[in-house]
Design brief:
about 75% helix, globular, Amino acid/polyamine transporter I, 15 helices, mainly alpha
């Protein structure tokens, strides 16, 4: 048996594909530690937990109470927990596929499946489209925040402020690596907790009426759909996983961080929704901050929500761009390639935000697409063909997603009435 020299070993390593350098088949702690030394440091456990939470806690937190008022209290809590468990299982299926195939973009997980090229094309197209729409709504939230604080502001200044925030805040943050975004995640989560404190301090309105239970299937679907929308960062998971692997972590620890992040997020959403429902009852607005009085402290809450969005924007950008990176580059060779793609992505989102200032209907369409594709049927399909286990589970997982999609379109039809 011939010995392999150091020079030959280096040559073999140089011939590896980029994704092969981030192998995730860790069979021992020594292997993980060795990779942590040889690879650039990625995100640690708690940074991953905070990024996971921030990718889910966005503007939806302002609407969750309204869906609870439609579903009533106990079904609202139950169906949001179901949505959380369902989406967490979706994430785990995606992670297991990433581990087995050694791929770190969602679309590449379909390459070896029947009709894989079609699924691959649909995956990166849907990821990019939905990512841009989500980022556009965040740019629009800048305008809404200014209008709430100063209703007399002119259109010129609204667009000017949107432009400044987009290109001097959203854009530079989107150029950062995921491990460098932990501070925006922490600030965003704290801003949501601050709004929760304001609700707790607000006296219960005399006209507030709260129902504990009512049989309302459409209302239950509303909660499930919004819950799916809250956690629908499926294209964010592979790059978060890759970044965790770069730091020497293994799959089991990442799933632990994922589960903890989603559990804490679920707790925050439910506490927020229940608290606001008790205070405002069925009078709650689609944006719960509209129920709060015009005051300096409430303006802080609105700007705090903007901070929350600032934390989520670059995470969504990174997730959506990872699909384009895997499709067209394999891996960005340098910062210049990444900067060009980020610039184009943010520019398109900015243009959409200016052309469509009210994205309420688009958000519902976005939720329908994600519920039926990236959160349910697509993961079920890849799990059925790529992973070991009970195939009946993956079939049922996909069917539940289709049923959720029917509920989504029912909500969409109700929105139009």
């Amino acid at each position: 048996m011939e010995d392999v020299t150091a020079k030959e070993t280096d040559t073999l390593l140089d011939q590896k594909q980029p994704n092969e350098m981030y192998s995730v088949n860790f069979n021992s702690k020594d292997c993980a530690k060795e990779k942590a030394v040889s690879e650039p440091q990625g995100s640690g456990y708690w940074i991953t937990v905070s990024n996971m939470m921030k990718s889910s806690i966005g503007s939806c937190v302002l609407s969750i109470t309204w869906t609870f008022s439609q579903a009533t209290l106990l079904p609202g809590i139950l169906f949001f927990i179901i949505a959380t468990v369902y989406t967490t299982l979706c994430y785990i299926i995606i992670i297991k596929n990433c581990e087995k195939l050694n791929e770190f973009t969602l679309n590449k997980l379909f390459t070896n499946l029947p009709g894989g090229k079609i699924f691959e094309f649909l995956c990166w197209t849907i990821s990019g489209f939905c990512g841009m729409l989500s980022c556009a709504t965040y740019i629009d939230l800048v305008r809404d925040t200014i209008l709430k604080v100063s209703p007399q502001v002119t259109s010129f200044w609204l667009i000017t402020i949107q432009t400044i925030v987009t290109w001097l805040t959203f854009y530079p943050l989107s150029l950062l690596e995921l491990k460098d975004l932990w501070i925006t995640s922490v600030l965003g989560i704290l801003s949501v907790l601050y709004a929760l404190v304001l609700i707790w301090c607000h006296p219960v309105e005399e006209t507030a009426t709260m129902e504990i239970f009512d049989f309302n299937m459409l209302g239950w679907c509303n909660v499930a759909v919004l819950g799916t929308q809250c956690y629908s960062g499926t294209f964010v998971i592979p790059p978060l996983y890759r970044d965790y692997v770069k730091g020497g972590g293994d799959t089991r620890d990442f799933i632990s961080a994922l589960t903890l992040g989603n559990s804490l997020t679920c707790f925050i959403y439910i506490i927020f929704a229940v608290s606001a429902y008790i205070v405002f009852g069925d009078n709650v607005e689609g944006d719960v901050l509209l129920n709060l009085p015009q005051s300096f402290l409430c303006h802080i809450a609105r700007f705090g929500q903007l901070i929350s969005v600032i934390g989520a924007f670059p995470l969504l950008t990174a997730g959506a761009l990872s699909e384009f990176e895997g499709q067209f580059f394999g891996e960005f060779k340098n910062f210049f390639q990444r900067a060009i793609c980020v610039t184009v992505f943010v520019l398109v989102a900015y243009i959409i935000a200016l052309l469509i200032p009210d994205l309420g209907m688009v958000n519902l369409i976005n939720a329908c697409i994600l519920a039926v594709t990236l959160v349910s049927v697509f993961p079920a399909f890849m799990g059925f063909y790529n992973l070991d286990g009970n195939n009946t589970f993956y079939i049922m997982f996909g069917i539940i997603g289709l049923l959720l999609g029917v509920g989504s379109f029912s909500q969409l039809a109700g929105f139009g009435n």
